[in-house]
Design goal:
Blueprint: H1 3-16, H2 24-31, E1 35-39, E2 58-63, E3 67-68, E4 72-73, E5 77-83, E6 86-92, E7 106-112, H3 121-130, E8 132-143, H4 158-166, H5 177-183, H6 195-203, H7 205-208, H8 218-227, E9 231-237, E10 241-247
Parallel strand pairs: 1-2, 1-7, 2-6, 7-8
Antiparallel strand pairs: 3-4, 5-6, 8-10, 9-10
């Protein structure tokens, strides 16, 4: 892709981030006054672009490790600071195994730019659905490949995700590493700007969870929701992300 493409993309991203997303009020209305949990946060997107943090009653958080590339050092307990004066409970556990959390324990689940880092997405979504109360909501944000280093890769078919679920693929899986190394746009990742450095990071993915195992679009998101018996209520496409909110029966 050409330099003008990237310049235009950057302008579009900056323009999109100046104000909340169109239609954000509809997302707020469904989560207002509710108790929820976020997988892999907190994130600026839910503070500013899709400002749902400000309207929820409580919010807990889940991260896979006490130390992550994105959040730094973490501690369990009442340490999940999602807004300046608002704190929830931080859980340290894998997003595909929330066994410490009871069935139907939350009104909503949030996740932004996280599911692509999970080797078995349907296993994760099954867990997230389990902890939702009847009538609860799942708000999922996934990156558009056109806006990041995955733009040379193909969208993952649902059949592949079903195979991962049936085979009980674990987070140690590196099935897609060679594809990632071959098709990665190294010009967009200065911290791993060559194949050797990206491969070193990828081989240690269980510890850092930096790989994008799969590539999504809105159609695949809706297919996943339908497979889990979730009804898609809201959809938004931005220059960088696909946003969808689904309801549990």
């Amino acid at each position: 892709m050409s330099q003008p493409f990237y310049a235009k993309l950057l302008r579009n991203i900056k323009r999109a981030l100046r104000s909340p997303l169109p239609g954000y009020e509809a997302y707020q209305a469904l989560l207002r006054g509710k108790d929820g949990i976020e997988i892999g946060g907190p994130t600026k997107l839910f503070r500013r672009d899709l400002p749902v943090y400000r309207v929820v009653r409580t919010l807990d958080g889940v991260n896979f490790s006490n130390s992550t590339v994105w959040e730094g050092e973490l501690a369990e307990g009442m340490t999940y600071r999602y807004m300046k004066r608002r704190v929830g409970r931080q859980f340290i556990c894998d997003a595909t195994d929330l066994g410490r959390l009871a069935d139907a324990s939350y009104d909503f689940v949030l996740s932004s730019n996280n599911l692509e880092h999970i080797a078995n997405p349907l296993r994760a979504l099954t867990e997230w659905r389990r902890i939702l109360r009847p009538g609860g909501h799942l708000l999922l944000v996934l990156p558009r490949k056109e806006a990041n280093f995955d733009h040379r890769r193909e969208i993952t078919p649902l059949r592949h995700l079903l195979d991962d679920l049936e085979r009980r693929t674990t987070e140690h899986d590196l099935t897609h590493l060679e594809e990632i190394l071959d098709r990665h746009d190294y010009s967009m990742t200065p911290d791993s700007g060559d194949r050797a450095s990206l491969e070193r990071r990828g081989r240690a993915n269980f510890e850092n969870r930096c790989l994008h195992h799969h590539v999504f679009d809105m159609a695949l998101m809706e297919e996943m929701f339908a497979h889990l018996g979730l009804r898609t209520l809201l959809r938004t496409i931005t220059p960088t992300d696909y946003v969808a909110l689904a309801a549990k029966p």
